[in-house]
Automatic annotation (TrEMBL):
Record protein name field: Uncharacterized protein
Positions of region (Disordered): 47-66, 76-101
Feature: compositional bias, Pro residues: 86-99
Domain of life: Bacteria
Organism of origin: Peptoanaerobacter stomatis
Length: 162
Protein backbone atom coordinates (compact mmCIF):
# COMPACT_ATOMS: atom_id res chain seq x y z
CA UNK A 1 0.00 0.00 0.00
CA UNK A 2 1.19 3.38 -0.89
CA UNK A 3 0.06 6.55 0.84
CA UNK A 4 0.52 9.87 -0.78
CA UNK A 5 -0.14 13.23 0.90
CA UNK A 6 -0.33 16.31 -1.22
CA UNK A 7 0.04 19.79 0.27
CA UNK A 8 -1.19 22.83 -1.56
CA UNK A 9 1.59 24.95 0.01
CA UNK A 10 5.23 24.35 0.35
CA UNK A 11 6.05 21.79 3.02
CA UNK A 12 8.16 24.17 5.17
CA UNK A 13 5.39 26.74 5.16
CA UNK A 14 2.93 24.10 6.34
CA UNK A 15 5.25 22.99 9.14
CA UNK A 16 5.83 26.57 10.22
CA UNK A 17 2.09 27.25 10.30
CA UNK A 18 1.53 24.05 12.28
CA UNK A 19 4.25 24.98 14.81
CA UNK A 20 2.76 28.44 15.29
CA UNK A 21 -0.64 26.93 15.84
CA UNK A 22 0.67 24.44 18.38
CA UNK A 23 2.65 27.17 20.11
CA UNK A 24 -0.41 29.42 20.32
CA UNK A 25 -2.45 26.56 21.77
CA UNK A 26 0.20 25.78 24.38
CA UNK A 27 0.50 29.44 25.32
CA UNK A 28 -3.26 29.77 25.67
CA UNK A 29 -3.42 26.63 27.82
CA UNK A 30 -0.75 28.02 30.12
CA UNK A 31 -2.54 31.35 30.47
CA UNK A 32 -5.81 29.60 31.22
CA UNK A 33 -4.17 27.45 33.90
CA UNK A 34 -2.64 30.50 35.58
CA UNK A 35 -5.78 32.71 35.54
CA UNK A 36 -7.60 30.89 38.37
CA UNK A 37 -4.52 31.08 40.57
CA UNK A 38 -4.17 34.80 39.84
CA UNK A 39 -7.76 35.55 40.72
CA UNK A 40 -7.55 33.79 44.11
CA UNK A 41 -6.61 36.14 46.90
CA UNK A 42 -3.26 35.32 48.40
CA UNK A 43 -2.84 36.09 52.09
CA UNK A 44 -1.15 39.45 52.63
CA UNK A 45 2.57 39.28 53.27
CA UNK A 46 3.50 40.56 56.70
CA UNK A 47 6.43 42.96 56.53
CA UNK A 48 8.63 42.89 59.62
CA UNK A 49 8.41 46.13 61.51
CA UNK A 50 11.30 47.70 63.35
CA UNK A 51 10.62 48.19 67.03
CA UNK A 52 9.69 51.73 67.87
CA UNK A 53 11.88 53.17 70.56
CA UNK A 54 10.26 55.59 72.90
CA UNK A 55 12.38 58.62 73.73
CA UNK A 56 13.90 58.45 77.17
CA UNK A 57 13.26 61.61 79.14
CA UNK A 58 16.41 63.41 80.23
CA UNK A 59 15.29 65.82 82.90
CA UNK A 60 17.68 68.53 84.00
CA UNK A 61 17.57 68.97 87.78
CA UNK A 62 16.71 72.40 89.20
CA UNK A 63 19.86 72.45 91.31
CA UNK A 64 23.12 71.26 89.89
CA UNK A 65 25.70 69.46 92.03
CA UNK A 66 28.22 71.79 93.61
CA UNK A 67 31.09 70.53 91.44
CA UNK A 68 29.39 72.03 88.37
CA UNK A 69 30.33 75.66 87.93
CA UNK A 70 27.67 78.38 87.57
CA UNK A 71 28.80 78.96 83.96
CA UNK A 72 28.28 75.27 83.16
CA UNK A 73 24.94 75.31 84.98
CA UNK A 74 23.84 78.31 82.90
CA UNK A 75 24.92 76.52 79.73
CA UNK A 76 22.97 73.35 80.65
CA UNK A 77 19.78 74.95 81.97
CA UNK A 78 19.80 78.20 80.04
CA UNK A 79 19.16 80.07 83.30
CA UNK A 80 21.34 82.31 85.39
CA UNK A 81 22.35 80.67 88.68
CA UNK A 82 20.87 82.28 91.82
CA UNK A 83 23.41 80.74 94.16
CA UNK A 84 26.74 82.49 94.69
CA UNK A 85 29.74 80.76 93.13
CA UNK A 86 31.63 78.34 95.33
CA UNK A 87 35.25 79.28 95.93
CA UNK A 88 37.68 76.47 95.19
CA UNK A 89 39.97 75.80 98.13
CA UNK A 90 43.60 76.76 97.53
CA UNK A 91 45.79 73.69 96.97
CA UNK A 92 48.26 72.89 99.71
CA UNK A 93 51.77 72.37 98.31
CA UNK A 94 53.05 68.87 98.87
CA UNK A 95 56.31 67.17 98.04
CA UNK A 96 56.16 64.90 95.01
CA UNK A 97 56.14 61.22 95.91
CA UNK A 98 59.44 59.42 95.56
CA UNK A 99 59.51 57.42 92.39
CA UNK A 100 60.19 53.80 93.06
CA UNK A 101 60.34 51.46 90.09
CA UNK A 102 57.60 48.89 90.43
CA UNK A 103 58.87 46.52 87.76
CA UNK A 104 62.28 45.61 86.46
CA UNK A 105 63.02 46.96 83.00
CA UNK A 106 62.47 44.49 80.20
CA UNK A 107 64.90 44.13 77.37
CA UNK A 108 64.59 42.70 73.89
CA UNK A 109 67.23 41.88 71.33
CA UNK A 110 66.69 45.17 69.46
CA UNK A 111 67.24 47.24 72.62
CA UNK A 112 70.37 45.26 73.43
CA UNK A 113 71.79 45.73 69.93
CA UNK A 114 71.13 49.48 69.98
CA UNK A 115 72.70 49.78 73.44
CA UNK A 116 75.78 47.80 72.35
CA UNK A 117 76.27 50.34 69.54
CA UNK A 118 77.37 52.83 72.24
CA UNK A 119 80.44 50.67 72.93
CA UNK A 120 81.09 50.24 69.20
CA UNK A 121 80.85 54.00 68.63
CA UNK A 122 83.31 54.52 71.48
CA UNK A 123 85.80 52.21 69.75
CA UNK A 124 85.29 49.41 72.28
CA UNK A 125 84.16 46.70 69.86
CA UNK A 126 86.48 44.16 71.53
CA UNK A 127 84.44 44.44 74.73
CA UNK A 128 81.24 43.68 72.82
CA UNK A 129 82.87 40.61 71.26
CA UNK A 130 84.00 39.40 74.71
CA UNK A 131 80.47 39.80 76.10
CA UNK A 132 78.92 37.95 73.18
CA UNK A 133 81.44 35.11 73.58
CA UNK A 134 80.68 34.97 77.34
CA UNK A 135 77.10 33.95 76.46
CA UNK A 136 78.23 31.33 73.94
CA UNK A 137 76.76 32.96 70.84
CA UNK A 138 78.23 34.51 67.70
CA UNK A 139 75.94 37.56 67.57
CA UNK A 140 73.59 39.47 69.87
CA UNK A 141 70.69 38.24 67.72
CA UNK A 142 71.42 34.67 68.84
CA UNK A 143 70.98 35.44 72.55
CA UNK A 144 68.17 33.52 74.22
CA UNK A 145 65.39 35.61 75.84
CA UNK A 146 66.38 34.35 79.29
CA UNK A 147 69.89 35.85 78.71
CA UNK A 148 68.65 39.37 77.82
CA UNK A 149 68.56 40.77 81.37
CA UNK A 150 72.02 39.47 82.30
CA UNK A 151 73.51 40.76 79.03
CA UNK A 152 71.89 44.15 79.67
CA UNK A 153 73.38 44.27 83.18
CA UNK A 154 76.84 43.52 81.73
CA UNK A 155 76.38 46.38 79.24
CA UNK A 156 75.30 48.73 82.05
CA UNK A 157 78.42 47.71 84.02
CA UNK A 158 80.47 48.87 81.02
CA UNK A 159 78.77 52.29 81.11
CA UNK A 160 76.04 51.75 78.52
CA UNK A 161 72.82 53.75 79.06
CA UNK A 162 69.45 52.30 78.10
Amino acid sequence: MKLEIIFDKEFTAVLTELAWSIGDNIKQAMVNSIKPAMTEQAPPVQQPQAPVQQPIPNPVPDEMPEYITPATNQFITGQQSTTPPVQDPQPVPTAPPAQVPTTAPTYDVQKLAVAAMQLKDAGRIGEIQELIAKYGVATIMQLKPEQYDAFAQDLIAKGVKF
